[in-house]
Amino acid sequence: MAIRIDGKVVSLAVKERVKQQILENGDTPCLAVIIVGDDPASRVYVNNKKKACTETAIRSLEYALPPETTQDELLELIDKLNADHEVNGILCQLPLPKHIDETAVIERIAPDKDVDCFSNRNIGKLWTGTKVFEPCTPAGMIELLKYYNIDCDGKHCVIVGRSNIVGKPMAALMLEQGATVTICHSHTRNLSEITRQADILVAAVGKEHFFSADMIKDGAVVLDVGINRGEDGKLHGDVDFAAVEPKVSAITPVPGGCGPMTIAILMQNTLTAYRLQNQ
Ligand code: NDP
Question: Cα 213 vs. chain centroid, distance in angstroms?
Answer without folding.
Answer: 26
